[in-house]
Amino acid sequence: MSYKIDKYLKNIETPIYICEEELLEKNLKLLKTIQDKTDINILLALKGFAFSPLLNLISKYLKGCCASGLYEAKYAKEFVKGEIHTYSPAFKESEFEEITNLSNHIVFNNLSQLSKYKDKIKSSNSIGIRINPEVSIVEVDIYNPCGIYSRLGTTKKEFENGDKSLLKDIDGFHFHALCEQNSDALELVLKKLELNFKDYFKNLKWINFGGGHHITKEDYDIEKLIQIITDFKNRYPHLKIYMELGEAVGWQTGTLVGTILDITKNDIDIAILDVSAE
Question: What is the mean pLDDT of residues 235-264?
Fold first, then answer.
C-alpha cells in the first residue's frame, strides 16, 4: 500500500477496495503498447476486474470487454465503451434476445447451443464457438479449463462429429486454456490448437486467445508474446486476434482494506477481520 492511501485510512470505513489510478494506468499503457505493436484487440474480462469508477479510464486504452452472461453484458453497456463479447457455457432462452441486443460477439460453448439459438441471432452479432485445445498446462485442477471431463469448450472430436451445416454460421473461435501463466504457455496451447483446428481457420474472421495471460506481472516475457502473436498473424493474416484480460488489468493496482475486530486465542493469536480470505 502506498503512502498516498495510508494517510487517508483513518477516515475510511472498512471493508473497502481501493484502486490507485496511477498504478492502473501503468498497466493499461503496457497493454496499449502490445495492442499497437501487434494490431490485436485486448478486452477487459469483467469477471476478473470490474471496478466501476475506473472503467471509463480503461475504455481509453482497451477495445471493449467480455461478459459471462446477461447481467455482465448489461453492466458493460452502462460502464464500458467498445465491443461487448458475451460467452456462457449455456444461455437461458428467457435472456437470449436481450443478450443479442447488447453484444457484438456471441460465443457458444458448443454446436448444440448454436443450433438451438441460430434462428434468434441478429445480423449485428458475430458468432463464435469456444473450443477446447485439450492441452492441460494449468497445475490446479479446479482452474484448468482443459482438464479431463471439462464442460468448457468443444473438443476436436465433438466438433468433427457435430452438424457440419452450422460451420457456415461461425465467424470465430474462442479458447481459454491459461491461468496466471507466461507467454511460453500460450505458445504450447497454440501449437495444439493449430494441430487440431487449423483446417477450419480459412473460413474464420477472428480468433480469441482468451485470458489467463499474466502480462503485467514483473517476470512476464512481453517480447516473446509479441513474437508469438506476430508469427501467428503471419501464418493467418486474415484473422483478427482478441485477448481477454481481467486479473492482468488490475494486477497490483490496489488493496483490500479491512479492520481487526477482535483477537481470539487458541495457542496462537488469531485476528478476526471484517473481510474474508476469499
Answer: 95
